[in-house]
Amino acid sequence: MMRALPIYLAVLAFAAGAFAVPQAARAQCRLCDTPTTQGSAEADTAAIRLEVETRLDFDKLIVLGAGEGTATLSPDGTRSTSGVIGAIGGRAMVGSAVIRGEPGRAVRVDLPAQIRLYSLSGAGILIEKVQTDLSPAPRLDSSGRLEFRFGGRLRISGDADGDYRGDVPITVEYL
Question: pTM of the entire structure?
Answer without folding.
Answer: 0.72
